[in-house]
Amino acid sequence: MYNHLSGVVFEKKLGEVILDINGVGYSIQITDSTYKDLPSKGEQAFVYVYLQVRETELSFYGFSAPEERALFLNFIKVSGVGPSLSLQILNQASLQMLVPSVIGGDIAFLTRLKGIGKKTAERIVVELRDRLKSIPMRPEMQSTISTSYPEDAYLALLALGLQAEAARDKLQKIAEISPPPEKTDDWIRLALKRGK
Q1: How far apart are CA 194 and CA 178, in angstroms?
Q2: pLDDT tens-digit profile of 94-134?
Q3: What φ, ψ does residue 14 adopt, rounded to 5°?
Q4: Phi/psi at 43 (nearest 5 deg)?
Q5: Are 85 and 31 in contact (CB under 8 A)?
Q6: Which CATH number applies to 4-63: 3.40.50.880, 2.40.50.140, 3.30.2350.10, 2.40.50.180?
Q7: Helical H runs in the chain?
Q8: Rounded to two decimals, what is the model's pTM?
Q9: Beta-carbon contacts of residue 7 (< 8 Å; ≥ 6 apart)
């Protein structure tokens, strides 16, 4: 099994990076957070990877953090959650939101993520609750478990069709307002207003 790939960024865009390794271009599907962490085109990059082997295709999935890959590998072990859905889940919520939600059995939170129905959410909790306790979280990641905006507002924006990165950026900017809104509805209203 491949653990990581290291090479020069030949091309990168949301969802994909192509690493040039000794003259061979490796196409790797990536999370939004990994895209942000990657250096610019022409620079050296290091990516933790998972290789999916199918009869007609080999697909690489890449992550800038080992914790993110560990969560991805746990998700794909759940029946009904393949690599594509696992990547989609990681693009909608951070590790700091996902890990406590699964360990705490927060079905309501999980079902608000696109692609996850109630049965899938229940399977995730039953199968992963104990496993995720063993994922080592670096101190700097643990310290950011509390987000600066309401999770309900973030999930509501996703349900309204905003992309995860856009929703996070809008809410983060609102969080910098002094004082920030008190009600979730106000967070949502201000975020939507910023999009106009």
Answers
A1: 17
A2: 888 888 889 888 898 899 888 999 999 999 999 998 888 77
A3: -55, 125
A4: -100, 160
A5: no
A6: 2.40.50.140
A7: 32-37, 66-75, 83-92, 95-103, 107-111, 118-128, 139-142, 151-159, 164-175, 184-194
A8: 0.71
A9: 19, 20, 21, 22, 26, 44, 45
